[in-house]
Amino acid sequence: MSVPLFQLASDLSVSRLCFGTMTFGEQNTFPETLSLLNEAYQAGINFFDSAEMYPVPQRRDTHGRSEEYLGRWMKDQKIPRNRVILATKVTGPSGQMTWIRGGPNSLDSKNISAAIDSSLLRLSTDYIDLYQIHWPDRYVPMFGEKEYDPTKQYSSVPMQEQLDALQKAIENGKIRYIGLSNETPYGLMKFLHLARNSSLSPKILTIQNAYNLLCRNFDSGLAECCHHERISLLAYSPMAMGILSGKYFSSGGAPPDARLNIFRGRYSEGESRYKLSDPVVKAAVLEYVRIAKSYGISPASLAIAFVLNHPIIASVVFGATKLWQLQEVIEVIDIHLATDIILEINEVHARYPNPCP
């Protein structure tokens, strides 16, 4: 079995499964990370996504470890650089992560340039294939917020300044392509408009937003933008932080080492979006678990296969802390969801639309 590829650009082919590294250095030690990455690579996964702020929950002592572990793996295993596609992200403004350039306070050109150089060092590489803005510099509703509130808008760094910094990095050979993340239809179209008459136009390839059975907001506005502008979605959180496995609502409850149990009260971004106490979330998850069992597949397989089925999604950004979880994800490549299953899924979605935005 080999994971198929998707051609993002003429010289950039990525596996349909992208290994997200945000647990490396927190939930996973380096030896565990080594085993996971080797298994993924041997299965044909060539696409690996990280971020300067990883692992999560983010803290001063572990900052940058996910990138470091990824770089150490390539070096220790003598992985040819041209055989892997490395994606990472620059941290947006945050008042909490003071250990990252003082906050960071903004996503200006100085911060972007410094972030790129630091990521290159941690990854032990000369270039990054896909460099992404982790979240916008301006206010946008994120991580559980459902509606835009104009009173929350604040002065933000012009997008043109950000594009200029990214263009300079491309010209200097530090990054190859650009991606956005946690963006809105306005943000995506504004970036594309500003880049349209420059050499950056063909360089903006992707948007990395959440997409799963509990969060299909992408389809409301961004899907049309991406379709017409030929921007591919990198869908993160396909398992809704593990909730769609059904483990948190099983009779015995999730195991103690499940992420939302380990980090309870310490991971605000996750807990604000994936609310285990919400009866609507529970009802929706149990319905999807029922559908999976009725067709003889695991709830996790149903969740990931559904995301892979989307025509605009280039790659699914998944996480795994154990080898058996990774193997289950890889095996999803061979699962085809019949029309009847999709109809049942859409019926549940109509009753419980997007409870985890």
Question: Can you characterise this structure?
Answer:
- This protein is of the alpha/beta class and 357 residues long.
- Helices cover 36% and strands 15% of the residues.
- It has helices at 30-42, 65-76, 109-123, 159-171, 185-195, 222-229, 259-262, 268-273, 279-294, 299-308, 323-331, 339-351; strands at residues 5-9, 12-15, 17-20, 47-49, 85-90, 128-133, 175-181, 204-210, 232-236, 313-318.
- The protein has an 8-stranded parallel beta barrel with strand order 3-4-5-6-7-8-9-10, surrounded by 4 helices.
- Helix 1 (30-42) packs parallel to helix 11 (323-331), helix 9 (279-294) packs across helix 10 and helix 9 (279-294) runs antiparallel to helix 12.
- The two termini are 34 Å apart.
- The model has no long low-confidence stretch (mean pLDDT 95).
Percent of residues in helices comes to 25-40%
Distance between the termini: 34 Å
Q: In total, how many beta strands?
A: 10
Q: Structural class from helices and strands? A: alpha/beta
Radius of gyration: 19 Å
> Count of helical segments?
12
The parts where pLDDT drops under 50 for at least 5 residues are: none
Mean pLDDT reading: 95
Note the beta-strand portion. 5-15%
Largest sheet: 8 strands, parallel, barrel
What would you call the shape?
Answer: globular
How are strands sequenced across the largest beta sheet?
Answer: 3-4-5-6-7-8-9-10
N-to-C order of helices and strands:
EEEHEHEHEHEHEHEHHHHEHH
Organism: Rhynchospora breviuscula
Protein name: NADP-dependent oxidoreductase domain-containing protein
InterPro entries: AKR, NAD(P)_OxRdtase_dom_sf, NADP_OxRdtase_dom
Domain NADP-dependent oxidoreductase: 16-348
